[in-house]
Design goal:
158 residues; alpha+beta; tt1808, chain A; 22% helix
Length: 158
């Protein structure tokens, strides 16, 4: 691999896994997305996404069949995309996940973005990660409060 790819492939606060990368004809790099079942551009954010999804599937027992990357939604007439959406066993949105590159700090602006998506999807859990820091909150729709969890639960605990 060339030096340019190492700028993207930084160490994360997530386990390593057997990822597949390839160099495209145009000189850019791609990584295999197991959920979309295709090669996608390898960006720092995508590096985080692929590690996080793999960790959710292998460590947190999230069913891959209930997960989708780059899920489209329409908010106030504007097309948007959620980084990852996890459904419950009835097919309803349960978790929305927003990723940032490792060099991007997770801020209130990041949470504002995922909350806007959730106005459409009404998931019970929101997760934000930059690959180094991970945050998970549970929404209590009866009280309108957000409860930040100490850890990201296994799927069957959601």
């Amino acid at each position: 691999m060339q030096k340019d790819i190492f700028v993207i492939m930084v160490d994360l606060n997530l386990p390593e896994f057997e990822y597949k990368v390839k160099k495209r004809e145009d000189g850019s790099w791609a990584i295999w997305d197991r959920l979309r079942e295709r090669w996608v551009a390898l960006t720092p954010e995508e590096w985080v996404r692929q590690h996080f999804v793999e960790w959710l599937i292998t460590d947190r027992q999230f069913p891959a069949a209930l997960m989708g990357n780059e899920v489209s939604l329409t908010q106030n007439g504007i097309a948007r995309r959620c980084d990852t959406v996890v459904a419950d066993r009835m097919g309803q949105p349960l978790v929305i996940i927003e990723y940032k590159a490792p060099t991007i700090n997770v801020t209130q602006k990041t949470f504002d973005q995922i909350v806007r998506y959730n106005m459409v999807l009404h998931a019970r859990y929101l997760i934000v990660s930059n690959g180094l820091s991970h945050y998970c909150c549970q929404i209590d729709y009866e009280t309108g409060k957000y409860n930040f969890l100490q850890r990201i639960p296994c799927y069957d605990e959601l």
